[in-house]
Amino acid sequence: MNDPTPTGNPAIEAMSPDPSSGMLPGDAVAIDVRDLNHSFKNHQALHQVNFQVMPRSLHGFVGPNGAGKTTALKLICTLLQPQSGSVQVFGKDVLKDTKAVRQQIGFMPDHFSMYRQMTVTEYLDFFAAAYGLAVADRRTVIGDVLALTDMDGRADSPINGLSRGMQQRVGLARVLINDPDLLLLDEPASGLDPRARIELMEILRALRQMGKTIFISSHILSELAELCDSVTIIDRGRVKYTGRMRRLLEQNTESSMYRLTIAEPQERFEERLLGLDEVDSVTRVEETLEYRVTCSSQITSANVLLAAVLNLEVPLESFQKDLRHLNEAFMDLTEQGVR
Amino acid sequence: MMRGSLALFTRGLRVDCRRWPMHLLRFLLVGAFLFFLFVAWANSRLEIGTAPGLMFFSLISYTNFVFITLAGTSFFTSSITEEKEEQTLGLLKMAGVSAVGILLGKLGPRLINALLLLAIQYPFVQLAVTLGGILPRQIQATYITLAGYIVLMSGMGLFCSVVAARTRSAVALMHTIIWMPLLLQLLLWITRSSGGTGPLMQAAQDRVGWVSIWSVVGRLQSVMMIGFSGGAVGIQFYAHLVGGAAAFLLAWLCFERFTRQPHTPGPERGGRLLRVRGGLRLRALPMALFVVIPGLAIVFLAFSWFRGDLQNGFDSVPHEWVLWESIGLAALVPLGVLLVSVLSPGSRRGAIGGCWPGVLAPAWKDLNFVSGGAIGLAFRMTLYSLITAMLVFLIDFSGASWSWTTLGGWMLGIGILAGTMELASNIGRGFRTEIQWQTLPGLMLLPRSVAALGWSKVLGGILALIPVGIFTAIGASLFFTSVWESLSSPFDSSNPETAVFVMMIPLQMGLHLILFVELSAFFALTVRWGYVALAFISSFFLYVVGSWGMAMVMMIVGMRTRGGPGGTLILSQLTTIVVLSTMIVVTYFGIGRKLRHLAGQS
User: Which of A76, A108, A111, A113 best tests the B interface by mutation, with the highest count of B CBs <10 A?
Assistant: First the structure.
């Protein structure tokens, strides 16, 4: 079960992230979800959910409201018990090794659930003590997590008086207090202003560099696209895609898009581009020297198109394959309608 | 104004119809009435008493009174605070609903619900007339009395709800207001029953009439008397109507003043003092007690020795010194806590390492942030010291004969009652706040079992009982001789059944207290407010049905089989113990299940 490659399940193997990324010999898959089902009364929240998260990766978990993201997160973090299927965290079953799993994870829920009557230090000291840290270790760890979240200047402030962004940092500091290998973050950026959001993403990048595995559910797709190595898209309790982020953004069955910029204006350049056999359509980006070129079929490779453009003898400044936005992929994969 | 008020009124009625605790209360009330009917029937079979109708109706009337008092404190006090807590009061104001419209719209459905609950009983209790011993006019007078009491409770509850920022504060304020007259009545009763002739006794006699105008119990007592010839509407009814209307008027006048600032949601740190000081150290309390109690004792003993009072033993120590010792304790403990906190090193707020390690961490949290920490404990030490001083003052200075046993008995009784209520409230609040502020998932994700976390929270609640524990222990030690006598005498007797029976009484009481505390915790996880009242009513109902009912059944069975009640009482008590123990185990697992469920839900 620890080896992520031969799953025996074609659905998982087709969608699995690249096993070579981030895996070291002896590593267990950080999260291994298999045939997971969960229902609340008459509502089937999760239906045959399968996905894996590699260790030391940043994995996005995307889906519309009511898709089953929070339910899946709660099942992974042991707050709910799977009704059928299995969930393993670093090779440990969440049902059988609940305590061991809890030692290795840090879960931050989507709401600001804190003891707001405490000061920041009291709050962190409480959780450090509850995790069984000795007093000397508590001092070191609390100092470290406060420094990491840039909250060391507000250590003695009551949580109630902190801004939403700061409270979210305190929440993140709390999650880190037991030095977990896996962070499960449910909408950590919701309700934050742009600055706080960007700063939070920076902290997540730093944590990933420290070797933490981060499983993040978010609605802010543009930031996830930049941040995540891999992604799982879920809709109405079913996994629509799971795998590497880049592969998702490159996926397009009908056409390929390229973006090229020329150094100086050229006469009838659009028409010349359209005259090429490989090109299906050309769009100039407003009044700039940048053009978006759509090729009619996937067969056209970037090299073929580049050679054709160079043959037009124009001073080319840049040429790159235009990736889809995660938003587009998300819209393509998920269904319309209110849940 | 009317449109907004009616909209609120309709919504309130609909919401109350959907609340299952309301249906549970109604169910319990119906269950209680059926049980009382059984008791009246059993009494007539056993030929205990001559008026089963009067007995049946008295039980219903006093149950209604207790029910209104307990449920009313939670039911009416949340009418405005729930809007404050949900931050919807501002929206109502913006929608153009006037202050009086909001007050009427919020209070109206609750008042109607409460009065309907009373009215629905009226046709059924006429049965008491056919059972004998009660007249229709007495029933009429009783229900009018209770209706007046509901109006008073609703008005006062509304006022508390307007003034307080949170339901919890409103309930505390309401309790303070309603217990004051009851406490006053109790004090008057103590002074009267002590048989003293001092000036206080005379003053108490003079005040009795004034207080009894407001007294529901007094009015019910006079209505239930055989040969009652008074009117159906007594002065108490008018007094309560006027009181309720005055409270409504006061709530209206205060409304703008207390709802101007939007309520900021968030848990309290444990009182204004804590916010000012920033948190006093918990360890300051035992340190202060360690200095203050022996210090005071040494001072008084030295003074006593100097005067030569100790030559004839402890009993010759002037008992008024207990008064001064209590007052000294009340004053010096908070001062000692403050001094130790300020002078001890590292008293800075939020110093790392203050929290107790491992599984004890939740106990530390609840003790400090739910039960008030050092300030809360010091406050309670002061309160119980003042209660002791008051008891000494009443017993001694009312002119009655002084007795250490009497003082000990009162302290023991008050201590057990207050301690149980405090424990139920502490533990219930400990769980409730986790739900309210959605902090349960974080707690449940700690690598501990649910049972360990639950017990740790219980420990936090128990540790907050240090002041009442000291108070009760002192009371028990003073009362020790008579307690020992009453406990040992049955063992000396030749009847072993009596010894077993006596032994079972404290066990049964202990189990009942445990069930009450457990039910408080369970209901705290289930309902938003009124969990202690609901637990009290439920456990009271279970206790009455369990013990009294079983006793009745067994006595009837005993009469049929052996010709007399005899040892069947023991059997009935044993059955009650088994029923209570089963309930305790079921509730214990119910709490664990509920915690897991709520953690997954939030």
Answer: A113
ipTM of the assembly? 0.75
Q: A209: distance to nearest CA of chain B, Å?
A: 25
Q: Answer yes or no: do A78 and A165 share one domain.
A: yes
Q: How far apart are CA B50 and CA B266, in angstroms?
A: 58
| Tens-place pLDDT, residues B111-130 | 998 898 888 888 888 888 88
CA B36 to the chain's CA centroid: 23
- Compute the nearest-CA separation of B278 from chain A (Å): 9
pLDDT tens string A287-312 = 788 888 888 655 567 788 888 888 88
| One domain for residues A236 and A318 | no
How many domains are contained in chain A?
2
List Cα–Cα distances, B337 to A198, B13, B330, B343, in angstroms: 46, 49, 12, 10
pTM of the model: 0.77
| Contact criterion met (CB < 8 Å) for B445 and A134 | no
Is A328 within the bounds of a domain? no
Give the whole-angstrom CA distance, residue B409 versus residue B403.
10
- C-alpha B508/C-alpha B518 separation (Å) is 15
Residues 6+ positions from B359 with CB-CB distance below 8 Å: A130, B448, B452, B453, B456
Task: For residue A88, tell me if it sits in a domain.
Answer: yes
Separation of alpha carbons A313 and A2, rounded Å: 55
E-assigned strand segments in B275-366: none
Binary contact (B600, A142; C-beta < 8 A) = no
Same structural domain for residues A242 and A306? Answer: no
Domain that holds residue A290: 256-323
A109 Rama sector, left if φ>0, alpha if ψ -120 to 50, beta otherwise: beta
Q: Where are the alpha helices (DSSP H) in B120-271?
A: 122-125, 127-131, 136-163, 167-193, 199-212, 216-224, 235-259
